[in-house]
Amino acid sequence: MSDPPPISGRQPRAVRTALAVLEEVVAAGPGVTAKEISAALRLPPATTYRVLNLLVGEEYLVRLPDLRGFALGRRAARLAPVGVPRLPTAARGVVDHLRSRVRWGVHLAVFDGGRLHLLDPDPDHPPSDPDLLARLPQASALGRLLLADQPDWRALVRELRPVTEHTVTDPDRLSRLLDEVTEQGLASQTGELRPDRGCLAAAVRSPADGRLVAGLALSGPAARVADPDPELVALLREHAGSLGPLLG
Amino acid sequence: MATLRDRSPVHGLERRRLGPADVVAQSIAGSAPSAAMAATPVIVAGLAGPWTVWSFVAAAVIALLVAASIGRFTTRMAAPGGLYPLTAQGLGSGPAFAGGVAAVLGYLLLCAAALGGAVLYLPPLLGAGPAQTRWGATAAAVLCGLIVTALVARGVRPAARVVLLVEAIAVGALVGVFALLLAGGPLPGPGAGPQPAIGAAGLVAGVVPALAAFIGFEVATSLGAETRRPFRTVPRAVFATAAVTGVLYVFAAAVQTSGFAAVPGGLGGQVQPVQVLATTRGWWWIPPVLHAALVLSFLACAVATATALSRVLFSLARDGAVPGVLGRTHRRFRTPHVAVLAAVPAAAAAVAVPLAAGVPPEVLLVGLLGAATVGFLVTYLLVCLAAPLFLRRIGELTPAAVATAALAVPALFAALVAFVVAAPLSGLVLAVALPAGAGWAVLQRRRGDLPALGVYDETVASDVWHRVR
Asked: Which of A201, A132, A202 is closest to A167 using CA atoms?
């Protein structure tokens, strides 16, 4: 039961029903009940309940605390990629200010729907391949900020594959690393994407509700990331703090 | 739309951590199938005679019906409190509290029985020596209790991993032994002789001890909050456990009855059937393998039931029904360590004290298991009764759910009555304690001292999409 059986693709009606149920939950809004969905879609009640329980089991839907009503789960957010927002001029100013103060690469990424978008990569110090960053969030400092903010990081990690010999591939070690990230509000990686380079990243949180909106990263020599200068860390945190109201 | 909390009422546990293999292993370990495969068929045969195998089939069907009833809840909610929060959703706080008390007693006594079983089969492994004495057995029980306490307090994942490994070895060894015995064919003999005339009543009498072999198969329910994808994994784990242990028991019963088919008195006339089957063929090495597997299986059962016991107490504490200190969790290990430290030593004491007082381990084991079974039957009965009521309340009632309850509730009630008739003392305790507990809970609710029972891992704001963005 650990591996799902291969999909035969021979249940087109079941797939159609599942999509119709998802759409109905979006259309009716959070709190819609199984009976209402069954009536709206003219589906037999037993079929509706089975499909709903399946979608809840897969966490595309969640049951609200009264156990009658349904809403879209956070996993459903991954079905709807959103357009990358433009970076406000004031925020770009903050990033440029940090670039003028340090000799490290400075990158800004925003987090949306469980994904990482490099919104302002440093033109003078190009970061690793953006597709690689998006695919292996566990190997980058910015990705670790995102993972540490999830209730279960496994939901966003597809494969724990090594890029260099330093890449963390042990799930338990990654869990411990992410616990530290949560504690300190600061993530790092040394030589896990490129052997000689490392990265430090600070969380940018909305001042209104404290949710994670973006990450500000410094990239530089791996040895200096492993033992960072406290003044540099303070500078990074300070700039991340001033980005909060501009992006949150 | 109901208001969403910012954090789960059962926060502090390691939320969404265990994979399907860990959960299934805990669940299978909870019913200690190796021990039941070796010990139960002979008890059933004494009562059911020719109906032995059918008694196990009937008990398996009842267990599957209970698993289906539990599944109605666990596909919809994840609760660390085991079955009582499920009962609360259908029957309300009074019966839920009675179910909670029955679950605490059931798990405590089953954990104690598992420790006792490990102590019982340890001396033959170590040979004659200090472990054979009364004090040796007591010391072994205390030591096993300490190991289980430490393991369960240390974290849900290490405990689950140990259980997975140990239970796999134990079940593998037992299945191997039984396959060999089956290949050996029946023992030679003059024929079973005149069979005692046991009618269909034998089937009914045999179902009760056969059902006792299944208790503990639902322990995965109490891991709901700690399981990754709980709505998919937990119901499947409980159902798979009922099915797998059912097949194992029917297989074990069939091997043993066919082995003694030609011997006067049949299987029911034996005391240690597996040993006899092995030693008459000259397979001297089977009893030690069997004993080692039984010790491992009992220890795995002790860990699984201790985990469940601590989660039920934790949940009752978060509900405000027992002292709140039991609801604390360890910051690093993310286990309800206070509940573990309170309950597991109590279970160990329930074995160690009678052993020190000179009660023979065999007698103690049978007594503890019998009393535990009564507790479990009560919780099963309540949850089967609650399932259709819960579904009606949330507007998702189906004819299948009604049919399940209509079959399971009378069967469980009859089994409970049969048990109480066989052990009147436990019945008396039950008849006084449970209504008193339910009444107390209802009274406290009326006075406003107790909020509604049945805390579970609710959907919180961050689980819903519109709050994520």
From this structure: A132
